[in-house]
From TrEMBL:
Keywords: Hydrolase, Metal-binding, Mitochondrion, Signal, Zinc. It comes from the Eukaryota. CDD domains: M14_ASTE_ASPA-like. Its cofactor is Zn(2+). Gene3D superfamilies: Zn peptidases. Residues 76-253 form the Succinylglutamate desuccinylase/Aspartoacylase catalytic domain. InterPro entries: AstE_AspA_cat (IPR055438), N-alpha-Ac-DABA-like (IPR043795), N-alpha-Ac-DABA_deacetylase (IPR053138). Residues 1-19 form the signal peptide. This is Succinylglutamate desuccinylase/Aspartoacylase catalytic domain-containing protein. GO terms for molecular function: hydrolase activity, acting on carbon-nitrogen (but not peptide) bonds, in linear amides; hydrolase activity, acting on ester bonds; metal ion binding. PANTHER family: BLL3975 PROTEIN.
Length: 348
């Protein structure tokens, strides 16, 4: 009798352990789809599906595959795409999106989330900004899409076939820089502007975006599109992952996709609104020190940065020409002449 009870306990423990095992086989094969297949995508209400999207062929004839997670809510609603790692070394957004997938319950969702955590898999694998050929993918888009590079054209086509209504693209600063948690948006688009402010970041900057950027092309397609920046490259910023996660929750709640009971506690202490922004460039090369931190107000005449030569002598100082907020700054000390030092937003 005692041995039978022991066997029963062992069986129960094994069953409980198996029920809580959330580790999947890394060798498991995910389904693959072409962009043309997306029009026939079938996801039952209240379910999540995962697949690899064949975007384009590389120089060896292999498919470059973008992971896609579609979370279809039990109720109808907006179709929101959230993406990250367009630049392969900008990885904090990947952590944000993984956490989002873990905590969103499809049965409680109104609408559909289309999550693309790694838009540039080759750059992600190589831990660099560009793709396998060194191309900046966020300068490969165009409107109309047929004028974009093939890779960019197919990503835009994927958004169209999936019926995306809103798009939030997560980035960080490039190497040697760090950014505040801020959003860039073309304020001529009321729908895009609402997305930016519903996120409640520290700063919102009016910016149309480069001519061949993902956001500008998506906006031209009628999608409410926003770029979100945070921190620097090459690592997942543990402090910023929950900050950005709460911002995404605020957005989804304001759109009616999540119930108010799922809304995060608290918002940004203050959101600065900037009508424009510009970089301050060094006039001399040397060792640069930028004094104010990101998301800091500066006043006209306040010292921003100083440059020292290799003997430690100060060769130049920069002062604020107007009241502003610090959006981003250089973090590496050696800085050549005409180096971007500090990114200032002109407050409205």
């Amino acid at each position: 009798m005692r041995s039978a009870a022991l066997v029963l306990v062992v069986v129960v423990v094994v069953v409980i352990a198996a029920g809580h095992n959330d580790v999947v086989d890394a060798r498991a094969a995910y389904a693959t789809r072409s962009v043309a297949d997306l029009a026939d995508l079938r996801a039952l209400p209240g379910t999540t599906i995962r697949f690899l999207l064949n975007v384009a062929g590389d120089g060896l004839g292999r498919d470059v595959q973008v992971p896609v997670i579609v979370v279809r809510g039990a109720q109808q609603g907006p179709r929101v795409c959230l993406s990250a790692a367009m630049h392969g070394d900008e990885v904090t957004g990947v952590g944000v999106l993984f956490r989002l997938v873990e905590r969103v319950e499809p049965g409680h969702l109104h609408g559909t989330l289309i999550i693309m955590p790694v838009l540039n898999p080759d750059g992600f694998r190589l831990r660099r900004r560009g793709n396998a050929y060194g191309k900046d993918l966020n300068r490969a888009f165009a409107s109309p899409p047929v004028q974009a590079s093939l890779y960019a054209q197919r990503l835009l086509e994927a958004l169209s076939r999936l019926g995306v209504t809103h798009h939030v693209d997560l980035h960080t600063a490039s190497k040697g820089y760090t950014n505040a948690f801020y959003a860039r948006v073309d304020m001529r688009s009321p729908a895009s502007t609402r997305v930016a402010f519903d996120l409640a970041p520290d700063i919102v900057v009016n910016n149309t975006g480069p001519a061949n950027s993902f956001r500008r092309a998506a906006t031209a397609m009628g999608i409410a599109a926003v770029t979100v920046e945070m921190g620097g490259p090459d690592r997942v910023h543990a402090r910023l992952v929950p900050v950005a996660g709460r911002a995404v929750d605020r957005l989804l709640t304001s759109m009616g996709m999540l119930s108010p009971g799922n809304a995060p506690n608290g918002t940004a202490a203050q959101t600065y609104t900037c009508g424009s922004s510009a970089w301050v460039y060094s006039r001399h090369g040397g060792l640069v020190r930028v004094f104010p931190g990101v998301n800091t107000r500066v006043r006209q005449g306040q010292i921003l940065a100083e440059v020292r030569d290799l003997f430690g002598a100060v060769v130049d100082r920069h002062h604020a020409e107007h009241d502003a907020v610090v959006i981003g700054k250089v973090t590496e000390l050696p800085c050549p002449e005409a180096c971007r030092m500090i990114h200032l937003g002109r407050l409205l």
